[in-house]
Amino acid sequence: MTASSRPDHARSRRSAGDRRAQLVQIGLELLPTTPVQELTIDEVARRAGISRSLLFHYFATKREYYTAVTRAAADLLMTHILPGHETPSEEQVTGMLDRYVGWVETFRESHLAFVRGAGGGDPWVSEVYEETRGRLVDVALTALQLPDDALRRQLVLAWFAFTEDLVAQWVLEPTMTREELLELLRDVLDRLVPR
Most buried residue, 40, 64, 98, 136, by most Cβ within 10 Å? Predict the structure, then answer.
């Protein structure tokens, strides 16, 4: 190695935090076409320009890597669907639903794998899934200006399960317009959750 090549090499080195963020970002970029459980470490390492063994320097196991990608995807979902502070409360839930439908349209297979992985008892997926659903319940109760009690939390969680299933089916086979879907989901929520 010549002295003149050392600065280039030093510039291409990343901090551990930057490298972890890069590897998670690669996983996120693959999610529209590949469920997280099907991401191959070899492909992620290839895209990062590193060896497979170096990836395991940043993530001790595949599960740790998959958990990091799943958590990052859940955070993106929350950021994507949360209403803005300026949104009137009566429009917040409908806006969140519309953005959620768009998310599932874009990430259908990955979203299904996330929901099924949680339902299938995969502990690392279940943990992230339950955290995400809990945050969504908090947002929905606040947007609807409802008390946060055990009954309403349970009912909103049940409504989320219904919404996940119906939206996933609708994306695959639309049997109504998007507006009709949103209206139906909002109507079910209003009937299910007492004010």
Answer: 136
- Integer Rg of the chain from CA: 20
Residue whose pair of structure tokens reads 């740790």 in the numeric block: 64
Would you tell me the crossing angle of helices 108-119 and 150-172 to the nearest 10 degrees? 140
Boundaries of domain holding 76: 11-192
Q: Model's pTM, two decimal places?
A: 0.73
Residue 148 lies in a domain: yes
How far CA 11 is from CA of 5, 14, 63, 135, in Å, comes to: 10, 8, 30, 40
Distance CA 186, CA 140 (A): 11
Burial class (CB in 10 A: 0-12, 13-18, 19+), 5: exposed
